[in-house]
Amino acid sequence: MKIVKFGTALLFAGCSLALGLGAARADDTLFQDLGGRDAIVKIASDTTDNFLADERIKATFDNTNMDRFRRLLGEQFCQVAGGACAYTGRNMHDSHKGLHLTNADFNAVVEDLQKAMDKDGVPFATQNRFLARLAPMQHDIVTK
Ligand code: HEM
């Protein structure tokens, strides 16, 4: 009986430890596969450059502080990838609601991001894993 009690206590302790470690260490596999913080910040910066060179969408950014935008996109990409980064910007609904964006706008943004990831040597499969994390945001961003 004593052995059973001891065993149960040990099992309980083991589970608590496993849960504790799991909570402390989020899955950062995608963050690592994208190359870590500096590589992700560069992808965000290259994507921003592509937006400003893209005739389809560049006018949308006419009234935007692009230094702030570039920094926030880097923070957000890093956080979404699973890195230990804090995104300090507004949520996607609030920051896009006044822009009346379409699915075509969204697709242009995705293409510009893909172009940046190609340039930065991100393998196709990794690109798709990252895009899959951004895809659910479409509901908040496209309002037209
Ligand atoms: C998954 C897709 C997208 C992501 C992850 C994204 C991300 C962001 C982020 C992080 C911000 C900064 C939020 C803030 O100001 O606090 C932002 C703002 C902005 N985004 Fe997006 N965005 C996306 C789609 C789009 C699309 C499709 C367009 C238009 C073609 C667009 C145009 C803008 C503009 C113009 C701003 C600045 C608004 C302002 O200055 O107030 N975004 N976006």
What is the gist of this entry?
This protein is 68% helix and 0% strand. It is an all-alpha fold and 144 residues long. The chain starts with a helix and ends with a helix.
What key attributes describe this structure?
68% helix; disordered N terminus; binds protoporphyrin IX containing FE; single chain; Globin-like; 144 residues; mainly alpha; 0% strand
What does this structure look like?
The chain is mainly α and 144 residues long. It has 8 helices and no strands. The chain has one domain (27-141): Globins (Globin-like, Orthogonal Bundle), CATH 1.10.490.10. It is globular. The site of protoporphyrin IX containing FE has 20 residues, from helix 4, helix 5 and helix 6.
Task: Kindly provide the radius of gyration, computed on alpha-carbon positions and rounded to a whole number of angstroms.
Answer: 20 Å
Strand content: under 5%
- In CATH, what is the class? Mainly Alpha
| Largest sheet entry | none
Helix and strand composition category: mainly alpha
User: What is the number of beta strands?
Assistant: 0
Task: Summarize model confidence as the mean pLDDT.
Answer: 88
CATH-scheme architecture: Orthogonal Bundle
Poorly predicted sequence stretches spanning 5 or more consecutive residues: 1-24
By CATH, the superfamily comes out as Globins
Bound small molecules, by name, code or SMILES, are: protoporphyrin IX containing FE
Total helical elements:
8
Secondary-structure topology with pairs:
Elements: H1 2-24, H2 29-33, H3 36-53, H4 66-80, H5 92-96, H6 103-119, H7 124-134, H8 138-141
Helix pairs in contact: 3-4, 3-6
